[in-house]
Design a protein that fits this description.
The chain has 441 residues and is of the alpha+beta class. Helices cover 46% and strands 11% of the residues.
C-alpha cells in the first residue's frame, strides 16, 4: 500500500514536471514572459483637473482600459498644480518617485538633465496629426531633444459678465487697456470689480502679467537670451498703469489669490471679469440651477470670453502648456513610453479632449477641425490658443533661465510690489536685479 502511494506520487510529480516543462517551452517559444513577471506599474503624477469630468474619465474608463490592453498597472495620482514642481524636485533629489510627471510651461528646461528624450514619440505624433504647434515645440524641446511629451494647452481668456459690461457702456469687450481700465472703474464703483491674482500661483498670475508686460513693449531679455532688458521706459509705463488699474478697477484682495479663488469669486457674483481658462463657463454648464444671475437666470447665458486687451506694443497671450516628463530614474521607462503611445492614440486622447468641452487645446493642428469647437460659440476663442501663445523669456528663447525666472514669479512680483506701494521705478529696478542674478549665472 505504501509502495503504491509512493509510485503514484512519483508519477504525479513527473506529470507536473512535464506540464511545467511544456508550459515553459511554450512561453520561451512565444518570446513572452509569464504574466506575473511581465506586470509593470507606471506611476503618473498630474494636476487635479479644473474640469472634474476629465479626471473621472481617466480613473473610471481610460486608465482601466489601458491596464487591460497593455497588461500593466497604472497608478494615477493627482495633486494641486502648485505642488507639481516641488514633487518633481524632491523625486529627482531622492532618485525615486513617479515615472511620469506633468510639467507646466517651460519648467521642462529646469529638469532637462533628469528626463528621458521623447523625440521619437513626439515626432511620430506630430507626423500623424498635422504637425506640432510651434508654441508646444518650443516649450518641450531645446532643439536637441524633447524633454517632455506635449499634452495640451489651457487657453487663457477673459471670462466676463456680458450684461454687466453692457450696463457699464461696453457693448463689446474693451480693445485696449485704457478702455478696460475705464470700464473696470465703472464696474468697481457698482461693486463689480475685475478679479485678478498677482500671487504665486502657476496659472492665472503669469498668464496675465507676462502678456501685460509684452503689450506695453516690455521684455525680460533681448533676443540673445542673455542681456537683461526689463528696466526700460516701456516696462516702467506698464507698472505705472498697473498701479492705477489695480486701485481703480480690481478687487485688491487678488494679491493673495491662487488659481481657484477667481473661479469662486466669479461664480459667486462678486467680480465681473477674470483671466481664466474655460473652466468657469464649463462649471455653469454643469450646474445651471446652482449658478444663477442676480435676476434668477442661468449664469451660463451671461458669460463671454475675450483675449486680453492690446497695449502700445501690441496684443499678446500666454497660455498654460501642459506636458508629461519621463524621469531618468524610472525603472519602467519602456512601459511608460508604451502608455504614452496608448493615451495619445486618437481614439483614446479624443475621449479625454471631448470631456474637456473646449477647456484644453491639443498640441497638434489636427484637432482644430473637431466638432467640439462648433458646439458652443462661447468657447470658440479657445480654438487657436496654441497658435497664438508666446513663451516666457521673450524676446529670448524659453530656456532654463527663463524657466527659473518664471518659477520665481519675478515679473508678477514686479507688479505686485508696485500695487502694494513700492515706487514703480524701484519695483522695475528690483526685477532687473533679480533677473541679472539668473541670467548672469
Amino acid at each position: 500500500m505504501v509502495q503504491t502511494k509512493r509510485r503514484s506520487v512519483i508519477k504525479l510529480a513527473g506529470s507536473a514536471a512535464a506540464v511545467a516543462s511544456t508550459g515553459m517551452a511554450g512561453i520561451l517559444a512565444s518570446g513572452r514572459t509569464p504574466a506575473y513577471a511581465q506586470q509593470k506599474t507606471v506611476h503618473w503624477l498630474r494636476w487635479v483637473d479644473f474640469v472634474p469630468a476629465s479626471d473621472t474619465l481617466l480613473r473610471k474608463e481610460l486608465i482601466p482600459q489601458a491596464e487591460k490592453e497593455l497588461g500593466m498597472k497604472i497608478n494615477l495620482e493627482t495633486v494641486n498644480g502648485n505642488d507639481l514642481q516641488p514633487r518633481a524636485t524632491a523625486a529627482i533629489q531622492s532618485g525615486s518617485g513617479p515615472d511620469l510627471i506633468q510639467a507646466f510651461n517651460n519648467n521642462t528646461y529646469i529638469y532637462a538633465n533628469s528626463v528621458v528624450d521623447l523625440s521619437d514619440l513626439v515626432e511620430d505624433l506630430a507626423k500623424r496629426e498635422g504637425g506640432l504647434y510651434k508654441y508646444c515645440r518650443s516649450l518641450c524641446s531645446d532643439g536637441k531633444m524633447f524633454m517632455a511629451m506635449p499634452w495640451a494647452v489651457i487657453g487663457a481668456m477673459v471670462a466676463y459678465r456680458k450684461s454687466w459690461f453692457d450696463e457699464a457702456g461696453a457693448t463689446k469687450f474693451p480693445e485696449t487697456w485704457q478702455e478696460y481700465h475705464d470700464i473696470g472703474k465703472k464696474l468697481k464703483a457698482k461693486g463689480r470689480p475685475i478679479g485678478q491674482t498677482l500671487g504665486h500661483t502657476f496659472g492665472d498670475a503669469p498668464t496675465f502679467t507676462y502678456p501685460f508686460l509684452w503689450s506695453w513693449g516690455g521684455k525680460e531679455v533681448e533676443a540673445d537670451g542673455k542681456t537683461v532688458a526689463i528696466n526700460s521706459k516701456e516696462t516702467l509705463e506698464s507698472v505705472k498703469f498697473m498701479t492705477g488699474f489695480w486701485k481703480d478697477a480690481c478687487d485688491e484682495g487678488g494679491l493673495a489669490w491662487d488659481d481657484t479663488n477667481n473661479n469662486r469669486a466669479f461664480l459667486s457674483g462678486t467680480i465681473s471679469a477674470t483671466l481664466n481658462g474655460a473652466s468657469i463657463y464649463i462649471e455653469t454648464l454643469r450646474k445651471p440651477d446652482q449658478y444663477q444671475t442676480e435676476k434668477g437666470k442661468p449664469m451660463k447665458e451671461d458669460i463671454m470670453h475675450s483675449p486680453l486687451p492690446k497695449g502700445p506694443g501690441g496684443q499678446f497671450g500666454m497660455h498654460l502648456m501642459q506636458s508629461d516628463m519621463l524621469m531618468k530614474y524610472s525603472k519602467n521607462q519602456d512601459a511608460a513610453k508604451e502608455f504614452l503611445r496608448w493615451i495619445h492614440a486618437e481614439k483614446n486622447y479624443g475621449k479625454w479632449f471631448e470631456s474637456q468641452k473646449g477647456y484644453s487645446t491639443p498640441p497638434t493642428a489636427k484637432w482644430e477641425s473637431s466638432p467640439v469647437w462648433n458646439a458652443d460659440p462661447v468657447l470658440a476663442p479657445f480654438k487657436v490658443a496654441a497658435r497664438l501663445g508666446q513663451a516666457p523669456g521673450y524676446a529670448g528663447p524659453p530656456n532654463g533661465k527663463a524657466a527659473e525666472a518664471l518659477t520665481k514669479y519675478i515679473v508678477t512680483d514686479m507688479y505686485a510690489k508696485a500695487v502694494q506701494g513700492m515706487a514703480p521705478e524701484e519695483s522695475v529696478k528690483w526685477a532687473e536685479g533679480e533677473l541679472k542674478k539668473i541670467y548672469s549665472a
